[in-house]
Amino acid sequence: MVQWRRYVMILAASVIAGCAAPMVREVEETTPKLPPSVMVEPALSPAYFRLLDEGEALLESEDITGAIALFERAQRIHADDARVYLAIARAYAVAGDERSAMAMAERGLLYCKSAEKCRELDQFVR
User: Fold this and answer.
1) What gap in Å lies between CA 101 and CA 12, rounded to an integer?
2) Distance (Å, rounded) from C-alpha 4 to C-alpha 43?
3) Is residue 87 part of a domain?
4) How far apart are CA 54 and CA 60, in angstroms?
5) Is 0.70 topped by the overall pTM?
C-alpha cells in the first residue's frame, strides 16, 4: 500500500511538472533586413507601359478622351504607381478640367517614390 501511494505521488509530480510552462528562448531573426533606403519595387507589366505609351501618343495627337481611357485602363493594372496618376492629371489639364487634374495628382502623391515624380504631381496640386 505504501508503494502504491509512492507511485501515485511520483505520477502526480510528473504530471504537474509536465504542465508547467515550457521555457521559451528568444530566437534570433535570421532574415536579413534591408536598409530603409533600399526599396525593391515590384515588376510592372509590359501591358501597363504599352498603355501609358499609347495614351501619351493619343494625348499628343489631341485625342484626349482616348488618352484618358487608356490611362484609366493602365490604372486598373497598376493602381499603386504614380506615373499613371501623373499621366491622367496631364490629360485632364489639357482637357481644361483642372479639378480632376488636381484630384488625380493628389492621389498620385500617395504613391510617388521619386522626388521628380512628386514634384511633377505637386505642380497640379498648387
Assistant:
1) 76
2) 71
3) yes
4) 10
5) no
**Residue 58 to residue 68: CA distance in whole angstroms:** 9
Whether 41 is covered by a domain: the verdict is no
Q: Per the domain annotation, does 29 fall within a domain? A: no
Residue 51: CB atoms within 10 A of its CB come to: 23
In total, how many domains does the chain have? Answer: 1
Q: Does a structural domain hold residue 21?
A: no
Per residue of the chain (126 residues), what is the pLDDT tens digit?
556 676 666 766 666 665 555 555 565 566 666 565 555 566 888 999 999 999 999 999 999 999 999 999 999 999 999 999 999 999 999 999 999 999 999 999 999 888 998 899 998 887
The residue range of the domain holding 79 is 46-125
> Coil, strand, or helix at residue 43?
coil
**Angle subtended at Cα 71 by Cα 67 and Cα 77, rounded to the nearest 5 degrees:** 155
Residue 82 is part of a domain; what is its CATH number? 1.25.40.10
